[in-house]
Amino acid sequence: MKLFDVYPLFDINIVKGRGCTVWDENGQEYLDLYGGHAVISIGHCHPHYIEMVGRQLDMLGFYSNSVINRLQAELAERLGRACGYDDYQLFLINSGAEANENALKLASFTNGRTRVLSAEKAFHGRTSLAVEVTNNPKIIAPINDCGHTTYLPLNDLAAWEAELAKGDVCACIIECIQGVGGIRLATPEFAQGLAEACKRHGAVLICDEIQCGYGRSGRFFAHQWLGIRPDLITVAKGIGNGFPMGAVLISPEFKPVYGQLGTTFGGNHLACTAALAVLDVMEEERLVDNARETGSYLMGQLKALQASCSHITDVRGRGLMVGIELDMPYKDVRNRLVYEEHVFTGCSGTNTLRLLPPLCFTKAMADEFVARLKKCLDAQ
Prior knowledge:
- The protein contains eleven helices and 17 strands.
- It is of the alpha/beta class.
């Protein structure tokens, strides 16, 4: 049997990681400014994380949700306190797509509607409902294309209000910082106006914090920069630092019903232990503050480089979620970064480099990255 060949790959086999550094099978060291799609939040192989997960695995790796798992309740209490939503409820699953899938189902269960408003360039996952609200026809199979979604420009409040006024909208789902869409930020005016319009028209507001949340923006959630409290908040990626996990944070206005939502693996003992270890490290090492401070420094250094380098047309983002827009396709620059300067970055669209380093990223690492990026751009 061979692998189903759907991923274009760098010809590099990464076998080891520590903090913001990874190594390939030949011992070559790389600076990691991508964190595996923003999954690595506290750094690769943090010793506290390894110790906690290993200890739990030695006791019990898994049992079903038919019995009490006190780790789930502990995680809910800790997460509520850390993010400021201690009056919300927590439903645990395995991935970001599942989180959005369950949030959309919960919204529809609540108001009985089926139409969803989503943003142009949005990415919300690849499962049935999640992919239908993702604005990429290339990954929406005919069986998923059920006509539930209307795509609208991010920050065009009048367009969203006009659709909500029709009275048939189940939910509005937004990324307050679009990741795959190119590090595009929602404005406070748009977010606040949308939240008010959703309440007026009986629609549910879902904030997808799967990539932009969990401290990455310099606050626990990116929407907390915008002055809103969504009805539903979806998280994944950084919640488990590499252990597959997702969750929905659910407003107290939603009342649970037995059997309404369910999962086999969600909230298992290992996943909860990983998530608790992540919260320990985030709090002890002040990683949310570090994301804000180091991210601001990184963006400042990149804007200084932009002033002297015509190839950079824009630098945007918040915290350690940064987009560098180029005047050319990113492919050659990204390849030079990986193979010549030994730096991993992400990408978006055709011209944007996407930076999502672990939240323990330092100012010294920022300086090193900018110097290596300059070499690559000077070579173009």
